[in-house]
Amino acid sequence: MGCAWGCEKHESNSDVAELPLNTLHNVTTPLSQAVATPDALSSTRSCGSLSSQFVQFADHKHAQGQRSPVYSWPCTTAYTPWPPANLDSIDFNPFDYDEDGLLLCLELIFTAPPLSLLQALSIPPEPFQEFLATVRGAYRANPYHNFRHAFQVVQTTYHFLLKLDLARLYQPDQLMCVLLACLCHDADHPGYTNAFQLNSHSPLALRYQTSPLEEYHAYIGTSLIQKSSLFPLLRNSIPNIKGFLSQMTRWILATDLKFHSENISALTWTGIGPWTEDPAFRLVVLGGLLQAADISNEVRADAVRALWAPCVADEFGHQHDLEAHLQLALTFKVPRAEMVIARDQTGFIQFICYPLYNALARLLPDFAVYVQRLD
Rounded to 5 degrees, what angle do the CA atoms 118, 220, 106 make? Predict the structure, then answer.
């Protein structure tokens, strides 16, 4: 297999695990603790950069700091019908399954035709199942930025790849990379925005000053991969594993909405001939699909959208309460009880969703159906 990441030469795989894979990943003591990989994570509550008042308030007022436990691999017999008939649909409802069921759905996305990524990369199921369960354990029980949201971003990207007939444009390691970026893009999210991190001088903001959350998620995701039994198998199958993890990092960092305009501009094709013939631009489009999946609530069925909206309001409401308690600048100007979900969604659709979805529709005419769903 050739180099999939636009590199001039392959990096040696022998010492990747011991080297920082990106200059952003120079932290020697990570900030949170996953059940399955205690050395990869340490508790945000013990970092000491915030006052005990902050910790006590956060613990008392909402349960976002409590991570979901990691379970042994679930059995498909608990879910009927199985497999889900609409796993490749934009209207798949992630609330129809508990988190064990979502793990099983994730396994299908990676293993079943037409992608069959584990087979293509010679990865047996058991190490991959263990990795999926570990990532699940790295997500906190936040109202919105939780494992269910991470699953939906994977599933929506999977839907785009199949519905738009794009999977054929990419090598198996590229598809594996973008789906793992989707899965890890909010790993160990604390339930508060970058604005809160910076205004409160949180431990994350002291370590990561550009995009505290996204830099941290990228660090956690790539660290979990390197510390897993999946990693040696990936190194054996992917010539440039360092490029693989660096690309995964770039895609996660790009989910920071401060780069939204820059991401949209990058989706402008100015080359000669079809964009599909340009390997580097194909990766830009793949990242655009991840970003579109991350904000895809508004193009899903009404029933699914209605389930997500109060989750978003609840998480933002928690942040409003904590900012008011700590006398910080209010990111959201109205308290939870006064939040108008419909109005907030309208602004989000107009200024965030439409520009990105229109940019993708200019490259992918069939993407126009999702633009129409925003109306």
Answer: 35
- What gap in Å lies between CA 104 and CA 115, rounded to an integer? 16
- Single pTM value for the model: 0.85
41 neighbors 113 (Cβ within 8 angstroms): no
pLDDT digit string, tens, across residues 82-124:
999 999 999 999 999 999 999 999 999 999 999 999 999 999 9
Structure tokens that stand for 16 in this block: 């990747």
Query: Please, which residues have CB within 8 angstroms of residue 49's CB and are 6 or more apart in sequence?
Result: 201, 202, 203, 206
> Tokens in use for 192?
């508060």
CB-based contact 65:44 (threshold 8 Å):
yes
Residue type, 10: H
Query: Contact at 8 Å (CB) between 137 and 36?
Result: yes
In a 3-state reduction of DSSP, which class is residue 67? strand
* Phi and psi, residue 37, nearest 5°: -135, 75
> Which backbone phi and psi does 67 adopt, to 5 degrees?
-80, 150
Tokens of 232: 């040696």
Report the C-alpha gap between 117 and 124 in whole angstroms: 11
* SS3 at position 211: coil
The answer to whether the beta carbons of residues 296 and 156 sit under 8 Å apart is: yes
The single-letter code of the amino acid at 20 is P
d(CA 293, CA 177): 15
pLDDT tens digits, residue range 259-305? 999 999 999 999 999 999 999 999 999 999 999 999 999 999 999 99
Decide if 194 contacts 259 (C-beta within 8 A).
no
Cα–Cα distances (Å) from 270 to 4, 6, 172, 265, in that order, read 22, 19, 27, 11
Angle, alpha carbons 91-93-178 (nearest 5°): 75
Name the 3-class secondary structure at 348: helix
Q: Are 356 and 288 in contact (CB under 8 A)?
A: yes
Give Cα 92 distance to the centre of its chain: 18
Residue 150 to residue 185: CA distance in whole angstroms: 7
The candidate with the shortest Cα–Cα distance to 189, out of 79, 65, 80, is 65
The CA-to-CA distance between both ends of the chain, in Å, stands at: 43
